[in-house]
Amino acid sequence: MNNKEEINLYIEERQDTLIWMQDEVELEILEEVVTFILNDIKQKFQTDILTLRDEENQYYEIDQIIEFKRPHTYITIPQRHDVKTLAMNQLRQNRSIYHISNEKVLVEKYKGTRKVESVDYSIAVIKKTNQKYLDTLKGIFDDLLIQPKKRNSVTQETQQTIQLQQNQPESPKFGQQPKENTSPSWISKRALNESIKKCELKQLTLEDVSKHNTSDSAWIVINSKVYDVTHYLNKHPGGKEQLMRGVGTDGTPLFMQHHPWVNAHYLLEHSQVGFLINHK
Ligand code: HEM
């Protein structure tokens, strides 16, 4: 007998639940539906980059969520602290349930416990919408990046853009060296990430840092670099409370007092939000 499978995606007041019958729906279709939902989230929150993690704070790519059937995936947007991810046991106001088959998706939308909408999408429409989103993205990339030496065909380029989009951003675990990008591509994913990151790193004052002094948004300065350690708090080997002592401040002296041998930048490179500048 076949069982029901379920995946939940969470961001702010929103919960998207995918339900399908085990072994009846092709993985490729599930991936299209997850992509469809994530594209919608990207548009609503006006961002190109989403980060996906499970309850253990482990990072995932879209295809991995499906492959490993992560039941709960939390979506965050790097450096957007106005977008909160609610705790698991908190009720979400906006819930959509996607009942998926190989031909169509029935979406039921709820506000609280009240059902407000029920829509049918054919898989073809979902694929088309995803493709449209990619084309828009491709347009933006084309404007931004150096063109490939040889363009083979539109489909191949689109395929590469799919890879770029789905692999964004790189997903190392805290404390782990990110894997080198070895896949051939007309623009190195790493170079792209780095250029995006460089643009995003801000010049910050101690006053800016002091505003992020809670466990919901915890910034710390170590050696003139500002890191967002919100997600490292529960991973800090010395405990959350110890790390909180330095949050919102230049934590370099405390850091050096306890463990001058620890390479903070290696551990927190991907959580850097900027550089400390002297104000006045
Ligand atoms: C600035 C505020 C901080 C304080 C007060 C603090 C304090 C501590 C304390 C008391 C320990 C336990 C040492 C022991 O077990 O004997 C510890 C361990 C550790 N902390 Fe921190 N810490 C701070 C910031 C950080 C930051 C920003 C990082 C990292 C990126 C970090 C990474 C570590 C690591 C890796 C250990 C384990 C060290 C080892 O096993 O040798 N800490 N910390």
From TrEMBL:
SMART domains recorded: Cyt-b5
Highest taxon above the source species: Eukaryota
Molecular function terms from GO: cytochrome-b5 reductase activity, acting on NAD(P)H; heme binding; metal ion binding
Record-annotated Cytochrome b5 heme-binding domain positions: 201-277
Family annotation (PROSITE patterns): CYTOCHROME_B5_1, CYTOCHROME_B5_2
Gene Ontology CC, one term: cytoplasm
Biased composition (Low complexity): 156-168
InterPro entries: Cyt_B5-like_heme/steroid-bd (IPR001199), Cyt_B5_heme-BS (IPR018506), Cytochrome_b5/Flavoprotein_Rdt (IPR051872)
Region described as Disordered: spans on this chain: 156-184
The entry's keywords: Heme, Iron, Metal-binding
Family: Belongs to the cytochrome b5 family.
Protein name, per record: Cytochrome b5 heme-binding domain-containing protein
